[in-house]
Design a protein that fits this description.
Blueprint (H helix, E strand, L loop, with lengths): L8 E5 L4 H12 L3 E5 L7 H7 L4 E2 L13 E4 L8 H8 L4 E2 L1 H10 L3 E6 L4 H14 L5 E8 L4 E4 L5 E5 L4 E3 L2 E4 L8 E4 L13 H14 L5 E5 L9 H8 L6 E5 L6 E8 L4 E7 L2 E8 L4 H16 L4 H9 L9 E6 L2 E6 L4 H14 L5 E5 L12 H8 L4 E4 L16 H10 L5 E2 L3 H8 L8 E5 L7 H22 L1
Parallel strand pairs: 1-2, 1-4, 2-3, 4-5, 6-9, 6-12, 7-9, 12-13, 13-14, 14-15, 19-23, 20-21, 20-23, 21-22
Antiparallel strand pairs: 7-8, 10-11, 15-16, 16-17, 18-19
Length: 489
């Protein structure tokens, strides 16, 4: 799409998705007139779009497409039957997918670095972008979340690099292939390959096929930085090895395995900082530290450091950038501290991610009673395919609370997560969960049971009934009630 000869109007259906909102901002920065619509908007992306002065119409309505836009971008969450999509088809409006427009309008002529994998994409993309930024390379980037160092999920830089998160989810209702196959990367970070997105992938073989195709796109002059597993725990290695087996470019590995070109040793978790030593080629290479918790974030940082070094960024610049790296919104984000209770928001979408989140919080808050409050909302968590894995992950917390399955009617009953069976499996793993229907009932039931020193991990990839605001408010209210009663006595 060429913007010459007038201010063209682009409308995005499903604009509040993280990638769609970012694309909207990029288009506006390029000079397009941008509008969008969605069923419901919630932070952080609703705030992000508001700050960009991009109007968001709610709910979907064919009238949102008046006057007729020059191009409509159809988000991958939009399916046939959506009133705006039906209007687009009936009126023969020009339309495309996000990855198609991203490639044609923004990626051409850039050195494209894609961060892919089941876990860690958003944080690793943010780290790599920050490293390039601190090194003065002014990269363009597109991240599936709000990177706190930038206060944004995108940037159109003057540099030659475009760093973006490569999602394996499908592209659009008319293109069921993975988004990342549209990006034609010059280099790839591959963090992990596990079964996920149970709504579109039949099994692990299907997931592996998608990543094999991504690997097959990397040119011989390119590079792949791939996880090598943790010594003594090679559970991910078979899938990674299958995906990497036919790479035409050099492949470097990171982890603690024997083959790791980039290894982590002397890892220490403090109350506010994490430190470690990085080895490269078996030799001590750098001392690292940052504010993030969790072993998995150390792997993410190691991958970003390895990729940046391969593009000529100095060791000193990499160390300095990671030292000042903050985080990403909704990744172990402290939302509130009320009367000694720490409330944390994490964008949980998969049992492995939940386990790593809880493990990180154990290390960051040793001795604290840890709560896990889960809304089964992602397309994988709403299904029973990983139900036992989910139970084991949740049982890592001291107190477990599970809400009803989000929009359970959208999942076939035979596939749907069965909460009673999940609860029984959690009990077999040593915890007694509470099953409560929604945010209001959860807040009402658990707030009085919380005490100073507790750490509460709220796990959801959506708005979760505004629990992030309701729980702190209730804790403050209980504290004020208690203080009033004591003063009266």
């Amino acid at each position: 799409m060429n913007n010459s000869g007038g201010k063209k109007h682009v409308h995005l259906i499903g604009i509040c998705g993280t990638a769609m909102a970012s694309l909207a901002g990029m288009l506006k920065e390029r000079g397009f007139r941008v509008t969008g619509s969605d069923a419901a908007a919630y932070p952080p992306m609703s705030d992000f779009l508001h700050d960009l002065d991009i109007p968001v119409a709610q709910p979907f309505d064919a009238r949102n497409l008046e006057p007729r836009p020059d191009l409509v971008v159809v988000g991958n969450a939009i399916s046939r039957g959506n009133v705006e999509l039906e209007h687009v088809l009936d009126q023969r409006l020009d339309f495309c997918s996000l990855p198609q427009l991203l490639h044609d309008e923004f990626l051409r002529g850039k050195e494209v670095i894609v961060v892919a994998g089941t876990h860690g994409k958003t944080t690793t993309t943010s780290m790599l972008s920050w490293i390039f930024h601190c090194a003065g390379l002014d990269p363009s980037f597109l991240i599936g979340g709000i990177a706190e160092n930038f206060g944004s999920s995108f940037h159109l830089g003057a540099g030659e690099h475009f760093i973006l998160e490569g999602d394996e989810y499908d592209t659009a209702f008319f293109d069921k292939g993975p988004k990342f196959l549209h990006y034609f990367p010059d280099a790839v970070i591959l963090t992990s390959v596990e079964f996920d997105h149970a709504d579109i992938y039949k099994d692990l073989d299907a997931v592996e096929t998608a990543f094999k195709r991504l690997v097959n796109l990397v040119p011989r002059r390119g590079r792949i930085i791939a996880f090598d597993g943790v010594a003594g725990n090679a559970s991910e290695s078979p899938s990674l090895e299958l995906c990497l087996a036919k790479a035409f470019c050099p492949v470097e590995r990171y982890g603690t395995g024997a083959r790791s070109n980039w290894r982590v040793i002397e890892l220490t978790f403090g109350s506010e900082r994490t430190t470690w030593t990085g080895l490269h080629g078996g030799q001590r290479w750098a001392q690292f530290e940052f504010a993030l918790a969790g072993e998995y974030n150390v792997w993410n940082a190691t991958a970003a450091a390895a990729m940046a070094f391969s593009w000529g960024v100095s060791r000193e610049a990499i160390v300095a950038a990671l030292r000042t790296f903050k985080s990403v919104k909704r990744r172990l984000e402290v939302k509130a501290r009320v009367n000694g209770v720490t409330i944390i928001d994490d964008f949980a979408h998969h049992p492995t991610a939940i386990a790593e989140t809880l493990k990180a919080l154990r290390a960051r808050y040793p001795g604290s009673r840890l709560w896990a409050i889960l809304e089964p909302r992602s397309n994988t968590l709403r299904r029973r395919v990983l139900q036992n894995d989910l139970a084991r992950s949740l049982a890592m917390a001291d107190e477990v609370v599970v809400a009803d399955v989000f929009r359970s009617e959208a999942v076939p009953e035979n596939d749907r997560l069965e909460l009673a069976a999940l609860a029984a499996e959690i009990e077999r793993n040593g915890r007694r969960p509470r099953l409560l229907p929604d945010a209001d009932s959860i807040v009402k039931t658990v707030a009085p049971k919380m005490r100073s020193g507790d750490v509460v991990a709220i796990l959801s990839n959506g708005g979760f009934g505004a629990i992030y605001e309701k729980l702190p408010a209730r804790l403050r209210q209980l504290s004020e009630t208690t203080a009033t009663a004591q003063n009266t006595d």
